[in-house]
Amino acid sequence: MDLGLSGKVALITGGTSGIGLAIAQRLAAEGCRIAVCGREREKLDKAIATLNAAEAKGFIADVCKPPDVAALVDDAVKAFGRIDIVVSNAGTHIAGRIDGVATETLLRHFQTKVVGPWELARNVAPHMRRQGGGRFIVIIGQTGKVPQANAIPSTVVNAAQHAFVKSLSDELAKDKILVNAVCPSRIKSPLTDQLKLYNEMYLGRSLEQQESQWGAEVPLGRWGTPDDIANAVAFLASERAAFIAGTNIDVDGGHQRSIF
Fold this sequence. Notes:
There is one protein chain. The protein has helices spanning 18-29, 41-49, 66-80, 103-131, 152-172, 207-216, 226-237; strands at 9-13, 33-38, 56-60, 85-88, 134-139, 177-184, 248-251. It is an alpha/beta fold. The protein has two domains: 9-187 and 226-249, Rossmann fold (3-Layer(aba) Sandwich); 195-223, no CATH class. Helix 1 (18-29) crosses helix 7 (226-237) and helix 3 (66-80) runs parallel beside helix 4. The chain starts with 8 loop residues before the first strand and ends in a 9-residue tail after the last strand. The model is unreliable at 198-205 (pLDDT under 50).
């Protein structure tokens, strides 16, 4: 299926490894020109080297800092002439209970995963309006829909991301800027290599040793890969998803139990 993405410009934050890098690689394979955002030049250069793209550039920015985000969008537009697709992927999963997580940690998490996308949208929307539309896709972890006592920072912040996506979609849909979310769960990536889940069977063992039991929680019987997330993002970025707005797509092998 031709997704019609050839020549589009895609900006991916958190794009130097794992899910973000897989998204950049997939969009590059679809013919997109790629702008990757990261905080370290060495990692950016390595990521760019893996892309089979007609044009790809790396930009250093910390999405926690509004001036960095404004500069990122300006620099990407100067380099490519436009931005058609934004994938907000920067951030991580923060486990812990309320008495074990410093307020500063929560605030940094919020700044990365809510203020960062907020600033991206504020800065890129005027460009997309002038172009006649665009795509804005946010990657949101499962705890936003499945609250967990032992992951309260991510539970609260990811839920805020869902509210942001729905509200922003309502605002921008009239401008043909489609805002959606992709929600991974049970995806094998550098993030999950050291992750301990609330219901793990063998505390302290390696992911490989635990994976068979963790996989049993997934109806498909296995963990997913970053490419599974990238495929969903490519679809949402395409004209094939032209009537999808303000929604979230679970890419989890059927793991998440919520019904919305």
